[in-house]
Each structure stands twice: as C-alpha cells, then as structure tokens.
UniProtKB/TrEMBL annotation, chain A:
<dbReference type="InterPro" id="IPR003838">
    <property type="entry name" value="ABC3_permease_C"/>
</dbReference>
<keyword id="KW-1003">Cell membrane</keyword>
<protein>
    <submittedName>
        <fullName>ABC transporter permease</fullName>
    </submittedName>
</protein>
<dbReference type="InterPro" id="IPR051447">
    <property type="entry name" value="Lipoprotein-release_system"/>
</dbReference>
<keyword id="KW-1133">Transmembrane helix</keyword>
<dbReference type="GO" id="GO:0098797">
    <property type="term" value="C:plasma membrane protein complex"/>
</dbReference>
<dbReference type="Pfam" id="PF02687">
    <property type="entry name" value="FtsX"/>
</dbReference>
<keyword id="KW-0812">Transmembrane</keyword>
<feature type="transmembrane region" description="Helical">
    <location>
        <begin position="376"/>
        <end position="396"/>
    </location>
</feature>
UniProtKB/TrEMBL annotation, chain B:
<keyword id="KW-0067">ATP-binding</keyword>
<dbReference type="GO" id="GO:0022857">
    <property type="term" value="F:transmembrane transporter activity"/>
</dbReference>
<feature type="domain" description="ABC transporter">
    <location>
        <begin position="4"/>
        <end position="225"/>
    </location>
</feature>
<dbReference type="InterPro" id="IPR017871">
    <property type="entry name" value="ABC_transporter-like_CS"/>
</dbReference>
<dbReference type="Pfam" id="PF00005">
    <property type="entry name" value="ABC_tran"/>
</dbReference>
<protein>
    <submittedName>
        <fullName>ABC transporter ATP-binding protein</fullName>
    </submittedName>
</protein>
<dbReference type="InterPro" id="IPR003593">
    <property type="entry name" value="AAA+_ATPase"/>
</dbReference>
<dbReference type="GO" id="GO:0005524">
    <property type="term" value="F:ATP binding"/>
</dbReference>
<dbReference type="GO" id="GO:0016887">
    <property type="term" value="F:ATP hydrolysis activity"/>
</dbReference>
C-alpha cells in the first residue's frame, strides 16, 4: 500500500539520526555475517574440493561392516549366545569375485572403477631400509579414479609397463632412499617375497604421508610381491556427480555385502567439524543481528511513543488497527531493508578487502590467501534474516500502537 | 432526513465514573448543532460516542439508520472513513506532511478516487477554505487558524454526512473562531450535512441552528433557532 509506505517513510525521516544508527547496526550484522560466512564457506568448499579431487569418491573394501555370524549363532537363532575371543578365520582376504563386480560397476553410467591391492613392503637401497605401502594398480583404470598422473614429477604412469618390475615412489621417499629415476631397489614383503624393482617414476603430492611412504606398482607385480595372486583388496570409484557418492555407496554395499565407504563417510570427522563451525558462525552473527534487532525495536518504540497523536488521528480518520500495525511493521521492515542493502555493500567490500590479504606461508597446496565463497545465497540469507528480525523487532511496538485508544490520547492532548 | 440517532446512550467507566447518561438525540441533515455545557459535563465524551470512536456501555447509536452497536472495529473504522469527519481542538496534522498531503491521507486510504482526482479534490477543499496558496506548506509553516482550516479540509476529505468538532476554536482568536463557525454554518446549510460542534463560547453557539446543553452528563436543554 503506497499510502502506508509514504506515511512510514515520513515518520522515519523525522528521526533521521536514530534511524541511521539502527540501520547501521543491522548493516554491520549483515556485513559480518556475509564476510564470515564467505570465509567459512570458501574454506570448506576448498577443502571438500581438495578431498574430492585427491581421494576416490567411493572405496569398496575387503571387509564387512559387521563380523560374519558365527556357527553357534546360526545354529541357535533364538537363543542368547555370547561368543568371546573369536579368532578370524584364516581365509585369503580380498574382495571376492572382484572381476564380476568390476564389470557391474563399470556398466553404471558416470562411474569409473579401479581395482587395487595395497600391502606393506620394505624398500632397500644400499644400506637404507624404509617401510612403505605399495599399491598395485592397473594404470589404464587407475588414472580415471585418481590424480596420480597430475602429481608425477618424473616419469609417467605408463612407464610401469615398460620395465619388468616398475615402481613409482613419492619424492620424499626417493630423497630418503637416495634413489633416482632408473635405479633399482629391492622390495621385501612380509610374506618373504623379494623383488628387484626399477624406479620408473617419482610423484609429489604435497601431502607428507603420501610422498614419504607410498609406492605404486602394477597390480600383477604387487600380487606377486604380496604373494596373493589374483587378489584385489579395494575397488576405488570416481563419480561424475559427487553428490551421489553416499547413496550409491549404500546401494553397492547392499548389493555386494562388502564394506563400501563414500568420501563423506571417510571424512566424517572433518565434516562434523564443519557443522560445528557453521553453528558457531550462525550463533555469533545471530547475536550481532539480535543486537541490531534491539536497535530497530528501540527506534520503532520511540516513533510509536512520539507519534501517539498521529496514531490517534489516523484512527479517528478511519484507519483500522491492522493499518496502524502494518504502518509500524513497515517502518521496521524499511529499517531492516536499508540495513540489509547497506550491509550487503559493506560485506562485499569486506570480502574484497579480505581477498587482498596474502599469507607469507609456503603450504604445499599453494594457498597463500583466504578462500572466499562468492555466493549470492549468503547475501540472500543475511538480508532475509535482517529484514525478518527487523520485522519481528517491530511487532511489539506495532501492536502497542495498534491498540492505542484514540479517545484517551485525544483527551490527554486537549 | 434523520442522520444520527442516539437512544438512551450511557457511558460509564470501569471505575464507576459516569461520563454521560441517558442521552436521546436525533440530528437531521442540514442541522448545525452546538453542544454546550460546563467543563467536565461530558461534551467530549458524547462527541466520541456519536462519532463512533467510543462505544456506549448501554443504549445505541444509529448512523443513517444503521445500528452501530453490533459492528466490529474495522466496520466502524470504515464508517468513520467514509461517512464521518472529525475536527479536534488541537489540529493533529501530521507534521512531516504538507497541508495537501494531510488532506490526501483519508482520500487515499479510502482509495475510491484516482491519484489525479484525489489531488484535485484536496486542492478544491483547501481552496474553498482559503488555503489554495498554502497547500504545499508544512503545518509548522502555517498559522494556528490556517492549521485548523487544513484540519477541517481533512475532515471533509471523503465528503462526510456528519462532521463532529470538539472545541475547534479553542486555540483560535475571535476573528478566526468566527470564520471557522461560518464555514460550519455553510457546510450544514449548503451541503445538507449535519454538523455537531462542542463549544464553550456562548456567542459562537448562537451562530448554530440548534443548541444542546449538557450538565453532569445529561441533556438539560435542547433549543432551536
Ligand atoms: N478516563 C477517565 N477517567 C476518569 N474520569 C474521566 C475519564 N475521562 C473523562 N473523565 C471525566 O468525565 C467527565 C466528562 O469529561 P469530558 O471530557 O467529556 O467533559 P467535557 O464536557 O468535554 O469537559 P471540557 O469542557 O473540560 O472539555 C469529566 O469530569 C472528566 O474528568
Ligand atoms: Mg472536552
């Protein structure tokens, strides 16, 4: 209603300075919210992006979520059976029928799958011994689920095939062993197999744990080294649509029975930290906006108090209680809206300021600046929150205004 | 034609104070009624009851034959907007709006006229009250008599059948007060409205066509001519 809007504007314009103070309060709340939210969101998105980039989206493991039922439990299904000290059955561990499962997985649209066998080994070069984890891969498939190719600093993934027992190792590992491309090391597995392996590639991820202890060989070679022929102990999946990871993992686990973990499950602890972070952020900025809302409450109350005569005359002219209430809610909303607009501009300025900051650190991932999310939804949430809280803050004085009895006011003024 | 009827209207406050009791009154279109009485006799209280700003504790008020006792607050507000006009002792103009905008408020609230028609109507009302040149001024830029005339223009904005004024000349000098009463007389005479004016001033009361005298919340005399 244009008339109410004009009246609301006129009443607020009269208290310009006080209006400005309340509007600034709201604006600061909105701006801080925007700045903090885009910092947090930016970092979280960056982090998740890294995780999604580096890790497979789904890992199928050679274990089950619950230990297999024991014979006694199967025999006496309705009895109270307690079995202690269960020793694992000495079976060959590994994903059963991995070939068929691989076929099924690869038939799914938007899914790339790679079988691997990981196992420990000791690398010996001259007098140096270092224990490592060797992952046996099929380069053709593995390149579709992992970024190893991108991280290669010497040699290529295909070179694994060129040598008899090719090995790709991390940069730190190479440095500590003192080996270079083309050198031959001796690998010894816990099962006692010894292989002469030729270094055909060196990678550098920036993640110490990988660069220091990882090695890659052909799947077949590692199966020989680990003395586990034809065994695959993990299948790694990469999806076109990461958001499908969790539901797909559940479907695969239900179908195959093998424990299947999505990247979300594998990083649950960190994702939980994000939830807590977000909760803290929302409460802090919520508190700021609460203070801002008190500012709005204050100005609307003041206007109502000062405008009792005008309220009385409007009512005597035929304005309803609803009109009067709307008039003051509108004033709250105007103050909230002004604050939101100002806050968005201020928030944008803060983001741009933060984006100029550079850290003097040398992190492996090369991020020397704040990761900032530029998401219109942050602005929308902040503005919406400001306008709504301003509206709510105006409700109490607006209702008081609506209930004023014009007769008493007119009497009092005469 | 009978515009307004009060049937044994009584107003008592919760504390037991009686403001007016047993008021019976009929007012026709074209009548200019002055309500007089000593201070505290209930003149204002009666005007608020007849103007549907207040509800009687017992008895009823009929406007144009319609019983207002059963109406909900929004319906009463609608009647005040379309059929009634109020003028108070204090002008009660909204200080941040010009004379013209003040007169436009009830017209716009009613929403029947288009913006251009509304403005034309407001201007003609102000013009008829001798304020054509002051329409764009803020209330604080006007004299007391001018403000009261703007308030009258605002009360007439939606062409009410009944105009109620509570000591509208209380803050005015004799010349301005007489001018306001002339306006009221003209409004009753020429447009067939009913005009009810509370006044202390016996001379002014004699310009009205009828004088209702209150004492202690009761009508003690009702004379015409
Ligand atoms: N809310 C109230 N509480 C107590 N007494 C009240 C209240 N309102 C009015 N009165 C009393 O009721 C009586 C009638 O008041 P009212 O204002 O109608 O008189 P009035 O004739 O208009 O007087 P005045 O000429 O001084 O304006 C007065 O004695 C007044 O003090
Ligand atoms: Mg009075």
């Amino acid at each position: 209603m244009r008339l109410l809007l004009d009246l609301a504007r006129g009443m607020l314009a009269r208290r310009r300075r006080q209006t400005l103070v309340s509007v600034t309060g709201v604006a600061l709340g909105v701006a801080f919210f925007i700045a903090i939210a885009s910092l947090m969101r930016g970092f979280q998105t960056y982090f998740i992006q890294q995780v999604i980039d580096v890790q497979p989206h789904i890992v199928i493991k050679d274990e089950t979520r619950t230990p297999p039922a024991q014979a006694a439990e199967l025999a006496i299904t309705d009895g109270a059976v307690s079995i202690n000290g269960v020793k694992p059955r000495d079976r060959v561990r590994g994903i059963r029928a991995s070939g068929e499962k691989l076929d099924i997985l690869e038939a799914m649209p938007g899914v790339a799958a790679a079988p691997i066998l990981t196992g420990p080994a000791l690398l010996r070069y001259g007098a140096r011994d270092l224990s490592v984890t060797i992952t046996g891969i099929d380069p053709q498939r593995y390149r579709r689920v992992a970024n190893l190719e991108k991280d290669m600093i010497q040699g290529r993934l295909e070179d694994l095939r060129s040598a008899a027992n090719g090995l790709i190792i991390g940069s730190t590992l190479a440095y500590r062993l003192g080996v270079q491309l083309g050198d031959t090391v001796i690998a010894v597995s816990p099962r006692g197999v010894t292989l002469q392996m030729k270094i055909v590639g060196i990678f550098h991820t920036g993640l110490v744990s990988l660069d220091q202890t990882q090695g890659y060989a052909l799947l077949k070679v590692n199966q020989v080294l680990q003395d586990r022929s034809n065994v695959v102990n993990q299948i790694l999946l990469r999806l076109d649509d990461v958001t499908q990871a969790e539901p797909l993992a559940r479907r695969i686990e239900a179908r195959f029975g093998d424990r299947t973990e999505s990247w979300e499950e594998q990083n649950r602890n960190i994702l939980t930290v994000f939830v807590i972070q977000n909760a803290i952020m929302y409460s802090v900025t919520g508190a700021i906006l609460l203070v801002a809302a008190f500012g709005i409450y204050n100005i609307i109350s003041t206007v109502v108090f000062e405008k009792t005569r005008d309220i009385a005359i409007l009512k005597s002219l035929g304005f309803t209680e609803g009109d009067i209430q709307a008039l003051f809610l509108l004033q709250g909303a105007i103050a909230g809206l002004l604050g939101a607009v100002l806050g968005c501009l201020l928030g944008q300025a803060m983001i741009e300021g933060l984006a100029q900051v550079r850290f003097a650190t040398e992190t492996p991932a090369g991020n020397d600046r704040f990761m900032l999310a530029q998401d219109w939804r942050i602005f929308a949430v902040a503005s919406g929150f400001a306008v709504v809280s301003a509206g709510i803050a105006a409700v109490i004085p607006a209702r008081r205004a609506a209930r004023l009895d014009p007769v008493q006011i007119v009497r009092g003024a005469a | 034609m009978t515009l307004l009827v009060a049937e044994s209207v009584t107003k008592r406050l919760a504390e037991g104070v009686t403001l007016v009791s047993d008021i019976d009154l009929r007012v026709d279109g074209g009548e200019f009624v002055a309500i007089t009485g000593p201070s505290g006799s209930g003149k204002s209280s009666l005007l608020y009851l007849l103007g549907l700003l207040d509800r009687p504790t017992s008895g009823r008020v009929l406007l144009e034959g319609q019983d207002t006792a059963s109406l909900a607050p929004p319906a009463l507000a609608a009647l005040r907007l379309a059929r009634l006009g109020f003028v108070f002792q204090f002008h009660f103009l909204l200080p941040e709006f010009s004379a013209l905008d003040n007169v436009l408020i009830p017209i716009r609230r009613r929403g029947v006229l288009k913006p251009a028609e509304a403005e034309a109507r407001a201007m003609s009302l102000l013009g008829a009250l001798g304020l054509a040149d002051d329409a764009r001024k803020l209330p604080e830029q006007l004299s007391g008599g001018m403000r009261q005339r703007v308030a009258i223009a605002r009360a007439l904005a939606n062409d009410p059948v009944l105009l109620l004024a509570d000591e509208p000349t209380g803050n005015l000098d004799t010349k301005n007060a007489a001018a306001v009463f002339d306006i009221f007389a003209r409004l009753a005479q020429e447009d067939g409205r009913a005009v009810l004016v509370v006044t202390h001033d016996a001379d002014l009361a004699h310009r009205a066509t009828r004088r209702v005298h209150l004492v202690d919340g009761r009508i003690v005399s009702d004379e015409r001519g």
